[in-house]
Amino acid sequence: MKVRSALTAFALVVAPGVAVVGTATDAFAVSKISQATAAQMFRSVGITWSSSGNCTDRNNATCTSFEQLNLATAQGAQTLRRASGCALDITGGTETGHASGTYSHWNGYKLDYGKNTCITSYIKNNFTYIGLRGDGYPQWQSGSGNVYADEGSHWDALYSNCGGC
Hints:
By secondary structure, the protein is an alpha+beta fold.
């Protein structure tokens, strides 16, 4: 049996607090993490987060929640922080109130970052401009395939993989 097949069949061994969603026949398994696990991962690299409601309730649109965030999304944020050296403040996570869809905030694929000169410069100078998103916002794509949309007041980051980890 191939190593990849064996890993898929056994759904990998994951860290405590991480749940694997999917079956052995899925193209890949999505690992979901808890609020506490994500917060620890972000703290470990100096990523901050904020919300207008000063809360983490996934069902409250004024909160910034990481509950049910994909592990790969958290790893992508860590990679962006390390590679850019810029301050990152997460202003949107898996809480309700964002656009729906398969690759949505609610489903754990997206994070919003507050804008600052450093991160804006890093994204625009290191990633490839790929045109306007369907809603008119300009997008840049990293070498690993993750997409960053400039939504004016913040960056909307879509992590289709862990950002090079």
